[in-house]
Design a protein that fits this description.
Strand order of the largest sheet: 1-9-8-5-2-3
Order of helices and strands: EHEHEEHHEEEHEHE
Helix content: 25-40%
Largest sheet: 6 strands, parallel
Shape: globular
Number of helices: 6
Bound molecules: 6-phosphogluconic acid
Oligomer: single chain
Number of strands: 9
Length: 244
Amino acid sequence: MSNIEILPDVEQLSRAATDKFVELAQQAIQERGIFSVALSGGSTPKKLYELLAQEPYRSQIEWAKVHFFFGDERNVPPEHQDSNFRMTNEAMFSKIAELPPENIHRVPAEQPAADAANVYERDLRDFFQNELPRFDLVLLGLGTDGHTASLFPDSPALEENVRWFVENWVEKFGAYRLTLTFPVINNARFILFLIVGADKADILRQIQNPESAEIKYPAQLVNPTDGKLLWMFDEAAGAKISVG
Ligand code: 6PG
């Protein structure tokens, strides 16, 4: 059983996640002068992003020392309704004047998928000085099919262990997604899953209380090599797991 925290609802989960973000940011900045984060997309983290832009959290973070990357992105322009950048910019970036624009590492997802992935990997290589990226924090969500980031079941990127950021063909969408690969995700200092809602109860049970040791879902491949993993979910998402 991984390290888990169960919160009553999305509001309290988001506040707990914000507290954890602030704690990790202050620790990283104190120890290394910088805090690097790979953000998750979808709908779950929106409240967290909104809280970070508000007091009492906002003034607890030295924003000039925070660098935001994206764990994954849809292959759409930044103004597109499906863009994770658009969601995050509306919820957080646009509200924090203290955050230098150059600290926001947007995936150039308006480009053809392979070009966008290659450009972003170069950004990662520049920032991490050609060393395998070791994010201070990687935020992840969980899909009802067991995907995380844009690492979907039966998709090519599950096997990628050389490239850091790739275009990943997702058959069920008939489209490319753009995503960090497991070598980068699992090299993080801290990985935080945020999971909310009754629709995630079945998949979460299968992951937290698997009937067999067989790895069936991409999210089960998240396992930090030298870092911490915390699963935060609300009671609705955790309704079917036994906390033993
Ligand atoms: C994305 C995400 C993805 C997300 C899950 C859960 O780009 O959609 O990064 O991995 O975290 O699909 O999405 P919800 O938070 O909307 O349930």
